[in-house]
Amino acid sequence: MTSTMAFAGDQYVDETGFAVSGYDVVAYFGLDQAAVGSSQPKAVPGQKNITAEYNGAKFAFSSEANKKTFLKNPEKYAPKYDGHCAYGVSKGGKVPGNPHLWRIVDGELYLNITKNVVGFWEEDIPGNITLAEGNWTGIESKAASTSTIPNFSSPAPSN
Questions:
Q1: CA dist., res. 140 & res. 11, Å (int)
Q2: Alpha-carbon distance 153 to 143, whole Å?
């Protein structure tokens, strides 16, 4: 990974140049969620030639069908807090969201930054969402995170 970050709007975009590191945000909604305390199934990589723009960022998809689904209602599929870590937002800051550390709650996609943070997030998901929602209005307009996701390597979306 390079140290140069790419940003578009408030959406977190990492070194891949894609939102959610180039993983297909629609595909999460078709995966079976693991129980709290267990690792989630792996995120589905997008294709670099199947993309759509939203919130000033490029999203990649694994299929044209998923791209079409996204374009019908991007707010439903884009991760909460512009792809930033949900627990970080609950604490009042913007740090990157890791596409492999995800959970869908009440039809919304949430990302977290590290496995340790997932543990804190899962101790009280409803309470953390309430805190994050209260904090988001005050930090949403701030610039996207400039940090790299720790201990994370993601190839750019494939062909």
A1: 10
A2: 23
